[in-house]
Amino acid sequence: MNDEKMRVVPGIEITPARFVLSNLPDADYASYDPLAKYKVGNRVTIDRINYEAVVDNDNRHPVTDTASPSAWLNLGWVNKYRMFNKNIGSTWKIGTFTSYPEVIDLTLRPGKRVNSLGMVGVRATSVRIVMTVPGTAAPVYDKTIVMSRKAGGSYYQYYFGPFKTKDNLAEFDLPPFNNADIRVIVNAPGGIAQVGMMIVGWAKTIGTAVYGTSFGRKKYSTLKDEFDGSITLTKRGRRRSIDYQVILIGDDEITNMQRVLDDVEDIPSLYVGSSDLSYTVIVGIFDDFDTGLPTYDIGQYTLKVRSLS
Fold it and tell me: What is the pLDDT of residue 293?
């Protein structure tokens, strides 16, 4: 891979106050009704969380009911917030995403300085990022990233060749206004726009990514051999992983790297080895890192990151 600054972006929490506008519905299902009689499989939405009835019940509130066994199953965040939150308690669900026909159009108001935006698990032809600030008519930032295009090189390839696509993006050039609105438009004409996770925040440099970085993917589907030799496949999610190889120059970079990673060790963050190589972009939590003693003022470490999407 190309040598480039290795960056990490801790994500800011996206609350309703920071979610200014969106074409996505606020709720996936009707609100809970204490007078209703619910059947197995019925679903409700309460405070941006979806619940499914696992037994027939009435007057058993999904949040406050303490009877055992539980009458409701917590399904996690509604579609609108799923690109920012996947956790159910301390458990992060894999294989979930925010989706909507043709376009996801939302505006965030971070309320603090940010300079970076990253997305993983994108299914779209393009993503447009527009920043505006009060009192300025023209946008202070307007950039469109092409996520899918026809292969070039020849007439035949253009008209009959496969599409070249990328699933992830990382932009680090957002102007750091503290009062900006950030509009993100994910376009998928004629299809379903999808975002696995989106991170907005302030990028921090933790060295320089170099060749030797490796990639992996673990799937959690299971195969069961039946008595007659047939096989039962149970499909489940999968999780990406990246082992970054990173170099550091000087004591200051080594100390800074340790301090930054200490601050983000339990925070879902955007990790980027090279913004030009989308497969080095991941949203996750690092497992650990190993650093050798510097030689001639140059240190090297391995950072192992597993995805949360």
Answer: 66
